[in-house]
Specification:
This protein is an alpha+beta fold and about 260 residues long. The chain is built from 8 helices and 10 strands. The chain is elongated and about 90 Å long.
Length: about 260
């Protein structure tokens, strides 16, 4: 049959993303018109063919197929917030849609040797995003939009940037005793939204104005907390009190 129709036979290479195996695959095919007569795998794909196929696969799967962690997502959120607020300097575009559109720009250098989606787990997204910043930008980010805030008790509390308009600091109320004013980021321009928690990590109050909370709300709130958590320290003057991470007995042990 092949000899009879040799002039009409067409040989094609099909190389690209295969969603069924989540990998880049290649085949050499023999066609007679609309009829495929034969298909053979191509094992020796070039590095560029693998990269092109992977880029196509990532776009099909979506940006979530990359190995994001809470830390790398937080970094992305901080950088997006910095770009929106610091209009005097140029920051990279790092929203999900912008990252997906510019894969060739930032991801390609890290894909050498890969041709399967599972291999992307080896990527460190935090390192990749950080590599797009200058040293000066890295320092500015850590200074103005840090990952955590040190409260008066000494604890380093992670800041939640998932809502870029209102970064959240969720912290037990007792750990803020002695803090006079609401903490803020970006040299005081962006107040942190405080989620004040009970000793059992249950929400008590949400505020961006700690001054007002101490003056107008704390006295009433502390009455309820004294009843529910009698082993804990609830001073009458929280502005002058010593912050604590534990119970009254815990405080006594620390003071010895």
């Amino acid at each position: 049959m092949r000899q009879q129709f040799a002039v009409q036979l067409q040989y094609r290479e099909r190389i690209g993303w295969d969603a069924t195996t989540a990998s880049v695959r290649g085949h050499q095919e023999c066609w007679l018109g609309q009829l495929r007569l034969q298909q053979q795998p191509i094992h020796d794909l070039s590095a560029q063919q693998c990269i092109d196929g992977l880029i196509d696969g990532i776009r099909q799967q979506g940006i979530d197929c990359l190995p994001w962690t809470p830390s790398s997502r937080s970094l992305q959120q901080r950088l997006t917030l910095m770009r929106n607020l610091d209009l005097e300097h140029e920051w990279p575009k790092l929203s999900d849609s912008e990252l997906l559109e510019s894969l060739e720009l930032w991801l390609v250098p890290y894909l050498n040797g890969f041709k399967r989606l599972a291999q992307l787990k080896q990527l460190n997204m935090s390192d990749i995003l950080t590599s797009r910043l200058s040293w000066e930008q890295q320092q500015q980010l850590e200074r103005q939009l840090p990952t955590s805030f040190k409260v008066p008790s000494g604890s380093q509390i992670r800041i939640d940037y998932s809502n870029p308009q209102q970064p959240i600091l969720a912290v037990r109320l007792q750990e803020l005793f002695g803090l006079q004013h609401s903490p803020a980021l970006l040299d005081g321009k962006l107040p942190l939204t405080l989620h004040l928690l009970s000793p059992a990590q249950r929400p008590i109050q949400v505020t961006q104005d700690l001054d007002s909370f101490w003056d107008k709300t704390y006295a009433e709130v502390s009455k309820d907390l004294k009843g529910r958590y009698p082993r804990h320290y609830w001073p009458d003057n929280p502005r002058e009190a010593v912050a604590t991470r534990g119970t009254k007995k815990w405080m006594e042990r620390q003071q010895r």
